[in-house]
Structure formats: C-alpha cells, structure tokens
Amino acid sequence: MSPLRHKLLRDIRTQRAQFIAVTVTIFLGVTMFAASYDSYQNLTASYESTFTEFRFANLTVAGGDVEGFAAAARSQEGVESVELRTVADIPLQVGGLKLLGRVVGMPADAQPMVNQVSTANYLSIDQPAVVLVEEHMADHFDLAPGSAFEILGATGWRSVTVGGVASSPEYIWPARDRQDLITAPDNFGVAFVVESFARELVGVNGPTEATVYYTDGADNPELSEVLLSRATKAGATASYTRDEQPSNAALSEDLKGFEELAVFFPAMFLAAAAMATYVMISRLVHAQQPHIGVLIANGFTRRQVLRHYLGYGVVPGLAGAIPGAIAGVLLARVITGFYTEMLSVPTTLIQFYPATLVGGVLFGLVTSLIAAAAPARRAARLAPAEAMRGSAPTGGGRASLLERIVPPLRRMPIPWRMALRGIERNPRRSIFTVLGVVLSLMLVLVSWGMLDSIVRLMDRQFVEIQQEDATVYFTGPVGTSEVESLEQMPGVASAEAVLHSPIVLAADGRYETTLVTFEAGTVMHQFFGEDGKVRSLPDDGLLVGKALRDVVGISEGDSVQLVIGDASVQGRIAGFVDEPLGTMAYASRTYAEDVLGSALPATAALIAYDAGVEVQEVRAALVDLENVAAFEDANALYDTVQRFMIFFYVFVGVMLVFGGAMAFALIFSAMSVNIAERTREVATLLAVGTERRQISRMITAENMTVALAGIPLGLGIGYLAAKEAMASFSSDLFAFDLYIRPSTLVISALAILVVALLSQWPGLRAIGRLDIAKIVKDRSL
Amino acid sequence: MAVSLANVWKTYGEGPNAVHALAGVDAEIPAGQFTVILGPSGSGKTTMLNLIGGIDDVTSGDLLVEDIKLTGLGPDDRTAFRRNTVGFVFQFFNLIPTLTALENVELVANLTMHDGAERAAEVLEQVGLGDRLDHFPSMLSGGEQQRVAIARALAKSPPVLLCDEPTGELDFETGRLILGLLRQVNRDLGQTVLLVTHNAAIGEMADRVLRLRSGGIVEDRHNPAPIEAGELIW
Fold first, then answer.
1. Helix (H) or strand (E) run with residue B151 in it
2. For an interface test with B, which of A423, A426, A674, A688 has the most B Cβ atoms less than 10 Å from its Cβ?
3. Chain A residues lying within 8 Å of B79, measured CB to CB
4. Which stretches of chain A sit within 8 Å of chain B by CB?
C-alpha cells in the first residue's frame, strides 16, 4: 500500500467518530433509497404480474345496454376479450351480522375471460348455492369451504355454502367503490357466484357489467377513450379504466408513497452526508496545509493531491453506500413480502434489480465525491511555500453582526461575545449546522405531519362530518314512517332517511360519484365549506366535493347535467364542500325530488345512538328487524383506520430516529470541527486557569445559538415540505390537507435541540483530554 | 523560594521506548529572579517550564511553586494553581482571534476578579498598547500581539511569569522590545520570571542562567551584571 494510502487510512482512523457519523448517514440514505425503490419496483411488478395472470380488466362499464356495448367492444381492434357479468351490492348475513356486501357473477366450470380469480374450485351451474368468497371476507369472518352464510336475493334470504376462497385483482385492496376506498371488514365482503344465480339473486334478466381486456393486457388510453365514448352511447351509468378501478387506485396511491419515499428522504440524508463530509474534509485540508505544502514541494503532482483528498470522501462514501445498497435491497424483500402478504396479493414478485444496487452505490459515492471536490481542489491548488509556512490563527476577528447592529451587546459578558463572534468566524460551517437542523426538522415534520394530518383527517371525517353512529339498509324502498319507527327502538336516539344513488355529473368534464340525499336540515352530516365553516344543506342545489371544481369544470351557481339511473336532468351547484374522504354530491330530499320530478323513497336510515348505549345490543336488535338488510357501523370503519395507525406510529418513530441520527451526524461533524478548530484557544484558556466547564459552557452557547437559529427556519421549511408531501397524495379520492399540531412543532424542535446538545458531548469530553503543553507550542493548529 | 525542583524526572513512554525529558533536575529559584533557561532543542527546557506551570505532570520528584506542591495535585487544584500563581507567555501568542486586545486580557482578568475590564486596560496601558484596546489580533503586529499576551499574563498579577520562546516569532528589534518589557515587569512588579529560549544571547540580560542538555542542568550561572535588553545583540 502506498504511503499516501496509509496516511489516508490513518487520518480516517484518527477522526473515526466523524467518519463513522458520515458513513452512517450515507448508509441510512442509501438504505432508504434501495429499500423504498426496490419495494416500489417489486410491488409494481407483483401487481402487474397479478393483473396479467388474472387478466385484470382494462375497462369496466356498468349500466345501460352492456350487451350492446360488449358486442361493439369485441369488434374493436386492440380488444382481446370482453366478459359480461352481473354485479350488485346486496346484503349478506354472516353469523348473525348483516352487511352490505357484493355479489359478482362468474361463468360456470371456467374462469371468466376477464378478472379471473385464484381458486381451484370452479363454480357449477348444478350447485348455484355453492359460492366462492373473496379472501379478505373469508379471513375476517373465518369462512372456509363448507361454511354457510346468507345472501338477500330478490326473493328473500338465500342460504349459500362456501365452495372455496378466492383472491381477485379487483379486491387486492377491498374497496367498495372510489368514493368508499376505506371499508371496514365488518361492513363489506364479496361473494363470487355462478352468473345465472347472480341474476336470480339480483332479479335481473341480463348482465349488468361488461369488463374489457386489451391485447396483451397493456393499457391503451386511446382505446379506452373510444370505448368510453361507445359506453356513453350505450347508456352506461358507470365506467372506469384500470387506473381508476377502486382497488387499483388505492394501491397506486400507496405505490406513490413508496416512490416519493425513494426520492425525498434519501435525498435529505445524502444532502446531510454531503454537508458533513464537506465540513470534515475542509477542516482536514486546513489542518494539513503544511503537509500538503511538503507533498507538493517534494514533487507530488496536484492531481495526486486532489486524488488523495477526494479519497477522504470516497472511503466513507463506499463504506456507507455498499452495505447501504445491499441492506436496502434485502430490506425491500422483507417489506415486499410483508406487504403482499398483508394485502393478500395473489402473486408476489421479488426480483433482483442490479440497477438499484448500482444506483444506490453511485448515489452514495457521487454524493461524497461532490462534497469532497471543493476542499480537495483547494488542497491541490495550495502554494507550497505558503502552505508549509503555516499561519498562526489570527485572522478573522471582528465584532459580530449583531453587536454591530446593536452596539449595547458589546457590553455582554465576554463568553457571550465569543459565542456570537464564533458563529461568524466560519460562516460556512455555521450555515451547514443550520442546514443540518433544517434537514432534520424537515424529515421529522414531513413524517410526523403526515401522522398528525391523518389523525386530523379521520377526526374530521368520522367525528365532525359524519354525525351518524350507524347506517341501516332496508330490504327494499321504504317510506318515512318505517324510518321513524326505528326511533322507537331502545338505544336509538334518532333516525333519518337517506338515499344513495350513483350519479354522473357532467359539464366541461364528467365525474361518476354517489349522490347522497339527506332530509332537509339533517343533523347526521355536517357540511364544511371551503372556508372551513359549517354550512347547511341548501334546498336550491347540490353541494359537491371541491375536487369537482376542476374535474368537471364547475363553479358555484353553475348548471350541471345530472345522470341518475335512466334520468338525465339539469341541476344547480349550490356550493362546494371540503371533505377528506371521497368526492360526493349531496342534496336535500326536497331539492332531489324537485329535480327528478318524483317522490323519493328511502333505501337506508342514518342512526344516532342514545348516550352510553350498549352498541352490540342495539345492533342486534336492529338487524333482527324484518325489513333491515344490512347494518353498517360508522365507528367500525373509524376503529379499522385506528388499527392501521400503528403502522404510521412505527413509521413516524423510525423517521424520528432517522431524523435524530441525521441531525446527530451533521451537527456532530460541524461541532467537532468547531471544537477542533479552536483547540489552541481552549488549551490556552485551560493554561491560564479557566475551568473546563466554563469553556464547555462557552462552546455550548455558541453551538446551541447556531442550532437555535436553524429551528425557526427548519420549522418553516419543514412545514412547507410537509404541505407539499401531503398535497402530492391528494386526489379526488383523498383530500390531504396538512395539519400539524403545535405540540408536534414544539416537540420536534426540542428533540433536535437535545440531539444538538448531545452531539457536542464527545467534543466537549475531548477538552478534558487535551495535551495543553503540546498544543500551546504547536504552530500548525 | 518561588520555585523549587528536587530530583524532578519527566519521562515519556515506557520500557525501552522511554524518553527522559528531565532526568533528576534540582533547582531553587528565589522570588523576583529573572531566570533564563537555555538549551538546544530536546534539552527539556520547555518541559521544565510546563511542569512549573502545572500544564504537565512530573513523573517523580518534588516540585513546589510558591510553596504549592504540584506533585499529585488534582485537576481542579491544578486549574486554581494556574489561575492564581502563574502567568504564561507563549511563542505563538495564542490570542483568541475573535476577541479584541482588551477582551483577550479581560477574559483572563475576570478569572481572578469581579470586573476585569479596568485591570485589563491598565495592564495594556503598561505594555504600551493603551491605544490598541479595541483592535483584534489580526489588526496588530507580531510584537503588539506578544505584548497583549504579556498583558494577559500580567492581568491576574501572578507571582510567577513563565515565558516560552517569547521572541521566537518576532524580529530582532521587536524581540528586544518584548524582552525589555518582561525585564521591566520583573523589576517594577517583583514577579519571578522564567524565560525559556534557545538564544544564548538573551542569557546576558538575566539574573541567572540555567543551561539544560539531555534533560539535566549542565550549567547554573548567576549573572552579577545583567545588561539591558536594548543592549542585546544576536
């Protein structure tokens, strides 16, 4: 090994704490990149593979003349298969629990051509009451082949037997529809039944849906455009492409999270590592000026010197990036496996992506090379005579900016003046310390902000907006008296009729959603306008989700075409609501009846419980009623979401640890250099009799002042970054408005300050080990 | 005695690698004496000064400064000793670059008195820098910086002043000025001055010259008629 290589390694060994800090930061950054990017790739591949294997529909069209549409679609170039089926949301009764489930028709003795399911047991026309149960439902209700449950058909409750459990690409994420992406397992389940039985249950003579699979299964927006236009002509009431399919839309949101994670967080870590590397190597070059002078004077080329000092970046870069990339790739396998198992994705595809490994190593290496470049170039350009002469550290003294602006500050105790002036002494290092605090706060606030926002979002939706405790679905349309009779039930405080109808709103654009018709003056739902204020449900128009302003191209007061079932009427937009989940349309019964020109029955009732009631008893009493088909507990969904929150808490916990580690690495590097740069001063102060703790206080004051300066900036930028991150997840499915609790800001700031305080601990401890006698005589310091 | 060394050893390393920087040094330096410690590089002169100043530990032997036994002194007592008993003047001045001349001196003066600003200004006046109080080290010449360093050492009024190559970084004229200043301080304030140098000519201005070689005193010469610093030639 060459002597220079020896020098490099020994220098690194001497300053191992700082090099380890940088290496760990690079390791974490590259690990996060490789883990999240490979997870993203693995999950995308798993979904894609599932979609191809199970021939997941590229387009689904419901309502109108689906057979006519299917015939037209089959003749369309690019279409490989079209399948007709009957799909309906109808009540199921499992173990005494009534829920609004879904029945999906399938061919007998074969897989459908589109939207196949994983099962070894085909349905038989001879045994129509033997059905397949979607995996999530089977898991939740503990259903296995041979189990029995009931489906409410057109002729009453029908007992069926489970013939098998199936997973489907349509229900990897078990969402009822795009407006109802998060569904509690108590409230939703899917049964696949033979097509003829499905029609019998639903009470229809023909199919209700057409599913289309394109050649090779590849998405083709132009083809979708053509087919959607045909669907509209055929009177379709609902249609969605593969991207818009509820389960796939939810999964795409999730994938987007991984994709963002693969860029945003690693970028912050690598930026922190770059800054720490820069600070560290700059100090090294400064301290080694005489050595560099000797090297150049003895004939080393500037290129050799450049390469040597770049080496101080390459070593931690590679030492962090190589194991980081490997750890990330391995972690991605665990994450993918855990994820696909949790979601019951039929096909899990874990692949080795060499590009991730190479990319991860390159990111780490390039980061540290960029960081090392400037100080290494400075080293290579040193004039040898001047470098060898060294310089006593006398330069740079002047009153601090603050003292110049506020002259009375010059009367502060000298240690405070030293602290203030120390900040400006090496502005670049102070700026990097501030940036370290900023980056750490960004990392913490983006993740914690996400948690706070989701908690807030759930409270907003389930506590402030949805006022009902449960929804009761009737076996058929009912009148007001049946709804009112529910109020006589023990434990029921009030009941209100409600009607859910699929609706298409069309103006410049077109949007399929659900029209929810409430009683005028409803107390079961609070409508929050875009200004955040509660408004009442108007009698002269619809309230719609704010996303429709852009999607449909409408404003308050505009007229809009409403397609409800077979009716197409003109309606008026009375205003917009700001709701976190879904984009719905709301109307009062008075307005809906006015527009449609007929009296509307109720299909469901919203229930509010008496205070302190035993919910299970009320539920049992309600589902026992003859005309009650299903019961949906509003709190069950809230509870389900709450259970998922544990993942967020873990995520935020990990991010806090990572943020802390990053802050520690960066602030530790900057502060160690700060202390190293003033070794001579410290030794002199010790020599003249200053106590160690006084010196520690002075240095702490300076370091903490810099860290403190980064706090407001970090909180501001962190808030904006969190806002941007939340906005990137917002769509018509979720409206993620950032909400950060004040306590989160305070705790984050305090946590970073504590980390800053701790990160100078090793440096301060080193003061006690200083060789005063040697240092005060050393001119190179 | 201001300083008393009895069979003082200072050894670095152990076993076959052991280096004896001082090997059984005996010396007694009375209060108010201006002593120059001479010797080539590696003779142990700086080690001796560091031991007397309490910034290094003796390996064996007895060392008393102003009747304080330094052998076995704990860190806190050692700090108190340095604060109250000795003042240092270093070759490289070692001023804090972010503090003005006045602040550099005041910082140290505050260690022993409540408000050291007045005292700092007074000693800076004494060393001829009354008009440079608010100058930062970067604005001062080498000689001026060393004068600030001397003022800093004097600010606490220590009975013993330890100077390690105080002219090593200065030109001839400035060096003589600084030596004159140290001599004047010694005479006016009665402080014991120990000055380490490799420049034999400086010995001519001292009351006493201790010459060291290989860790031992090879010459202990009293100077009956020391010359003034301004008369020194090297």
1. helix B142-155
2. A688
3. 686, 689-692
4. 392-398, 414-415, 417-418, 421-422, 425, 680-681, 683-692, 772-773, 776-777, 779
- Is some CB atom of chain A closer than 8 A to the CB atom of B197? no
Contacts of B75 in chain A (CB under 8 A): 692
DSSP state of B49: H
Mean pLDDT by 10 residues, chain A (781 residues): 81 88 91 91 92 94 93 93 94 87 93 91 86 93 94 90 93 86 85 95 93 87 92 88 91 82 84 88 87 81 92 95 96 90 85 93 94 95 76 61 85 83 82 86 88 88 91 86 89 92 89 91 93 92 92 92 86 93 91 88 91 87 85 82 75 78 80 79 87 87 89 95 85 83 94 88 83 74 48
Secondary structure (3-state) at A614:
coil
- How many C-beta atoms surround the C-beta of residue A636 within 10 A? 19
Are A210 and A69 in contact by the 8 Å Cβ rule? The answer is: yes
Residues A468, A608: contact at Cβ < 8 Å? yes
Q: What is the pTM of this model?
A: 0.76
Q: Give chain B positions within 8 Å (CB) of A392.
A: 92-93, 169
Contact A492, A618 (CB under 8 A): yes
> Which residue type occupies A632?
E
Rounded to whole angstroms, how far apart are CA atoms B51 and B40? 18
Tokens of A560: 């809009």
**Phi, psi of A306, rounded to the nearest 5 degrees:** -60, -50
CB contact (8 A) between residue A425 and residue B84: no
Residue B13, chain A, CB below 8 Å: the answer is no
Rounded Cα–Cα distance for residues B33 and A487 (Å)? 108
Tokens 């855990």 found at: A338
Q: Is the dihedral of CA A74, A76, A79, A85 positive or negative?
A: negative
The residue with tokens 């023990």 is: A490
Distance, CA of A738 to CA of A646 (rounded, Å) = 20
- End-to-end alpha carbon distance in chain B: 32
